[in-house]
Amino acid sequence: MRSVLGLDEAGRGSIIGPLVVGGFSIAAEEIPRLSELGVRDSKLLPGRRREEIYSELGRLGECRTVRLGPSQIDAAVAKHGLNDLEIEAFAQLVRAVCPGETRADACDPNVRRFARTLRARSGHPAPVTARHHMDRDDLVVGAASIVAKVERDRAIAALAAEIGEPIGSGYPSDPHTMDFVRRWTASRGDRTIGWLRRSWAPTKRLMRERSTRRLEQFEG
Known about the structure:
It contains nine helices and five strands. It is of the alpha/beta class. The longest helix is centred in the C-terminal third of the chain and has 25 residues, at 139-163. α2 (47-60) crosses α7, α4 packs across α5 and α8 packs across α9 (201-219). The chain has two domains: 3-160, Nucleotidyltransferase, domain 5, CATH 3.30.420; 164-219, Arc Repressor Mutant, subunit A, CATH 1.10.10. The N and C termini lie far apart (73 Å).
């Protein structure tokens, strides 16, 4: 049976933790069962429901992930290559699965270029279809978005447990996350923090604020 691989990511805009690329492969004949399961864009599902669906996805197909840590992301951003890093992670999953068809939520503004690049990088001859927001209107990519989101949420929960205090969602739009990062960097600095994306503008802004406060205290 022809298999279809869906690809999506979670955590691209986060200031804390990994970017998780999720893949879900399923026999083409089984795709309608995803609708019966309630699969849709992970952002439209509450956390508990995502977990429930994720636990069932492994019975219908195969779930895979690639985690890209903050240091990898920072290095890619320094070279203006975040999209390139993400495409390589997508290609890694294509090579692992060798599907009959790949469907991906494109991270490149040019979706045709994204599809060509992904196919070339993977070295796999099967066709690639890519669109923006494909997780909203394609069941297989929607399933991949659930895989990525659940694994990303689990990574953030594990990090919070390791740190020993709540850290919020990890996104700069979350005031709980930004308050946590502000307090942590104010007391400990940022150079040895493996979970913080230092290349992100909010992180740089916090570091500038910290440096300014220290200079003011020294001059005072």
